[in-house]
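S1.2 Input.
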Amino acid sequence: MRYLPHTEEEISSMLKVVGVKTLDDLFPTIPEDCKMEGDLKLPEPMTEWELNDHMDSLAGKMGSSSEYKVFVGAGSYNHFIPESINYLLGRSEFSTAYTPYQPEISQGTLQGIFEYQTLVARLLGMDIANASMYDGASALAEALLMAIRITRKKKVAVSKAIHPSYRKVVETYFHPTKYEIVEIPYLDNGRIDLSSITNVGDFAAIAVQSPNFFGVIEDLKAVKALTESEKKTMLVTCFSEPLAYGLYKNPGSLGADIVCGEGQSFGIPQSYGGPGLGMFACNNKFMRNAPGRLIGQTTDLEGKRAYVLTLATREQHIRREKATSNICSNQGLCAMTSAMYMASVGGTGIKKLAKVNFDKTEYFKSELKKKGIKIKFDTPTFNEFVAEFSEGFDKTHNKLKEENIIAGLKLEDYYPELKNNYLFCITETASKEDIDKLVQEVTK
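S1.3 Output.
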């Protein structure tokens, strides 16, 4: 079968209807210097075996986490994944991740998403959760747009300690609008500077990440108290490491109105940067302003338990101008993976795992202190923290790369004021021997 099935006669007929002579006439807005002349310069075709060898050669030029000791998190985390997940994802009930428009033949998918919603709502301490966000960054942007719809204000305050990529995505969403983003600086302890926020009532929402990009736990109670001084200012919290809520209080218990973030840590491989899972939850009273869809439980005509697509306020279901989002999609497979992870590890397991991550990070932090390395922010953290080194550490950092050790993330590229500061991450995958070796290498 040809890739383009239309005959020359059919193409000519269609062009005549729209009033042009050639296909090129359909693209007059493209500047001439942006158009390519001639054929694509493609290599000669390969056999299946030649192509496999070629792909292996390309893959060999990239460093994979299995070959490297990676002590970087910054929004993507290496965790052990229970083998049960690989088995369960292959079952026929979950073989499609597409939107379950026909509930009578999609009960497995619908129930899986319903269970995911329940587990996420419990984890984050909120009333409802959806399964429709691409990743943590787009979830934050959607949350801020939701706050604007609810409050009818056109300005939001966003912490500078939120993941830089998340803030870039928010800027991209807001660029074609009239909405304003006000950046909130952070203090010497790595937490949000609440004193910098004046006229709180002007903002639709204050957005804070906890644990933030530096791994620091924010004082969400203080932020909530500030928003409560103006009832129409909402507290939006985000995260990149949901495992933290196995140890620290969840955002819902601290008064958050909308909670969103990245769920990759829960059973989804890092896979060179994707895919991710945008977790999104809010209180019941905001349900109809939430983007995406919600799955509900009901009974069928025979009185048996059944699952249905209860609420879907997106452009495929209602008028585009009335939709709460025209970008969100169904993250069914990633959401299912996350639900299977939470169910496999269990509530008690998540608490134990979070404690292991915390203890290993604190051990690494204490060993660095013994060697005279300064910990930048003297504030409680989870999984990640910032260490400040002397001038010239970048040479050591590059040398360790050659030895297959990624010793933290250089923060100067994202925060120019944090020169010689590196963000480290320790998870349960790092052994004591790995940590001790890292300490030895970075303090030579």
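S1.4 Remarks. The mean pLDDT is 91.
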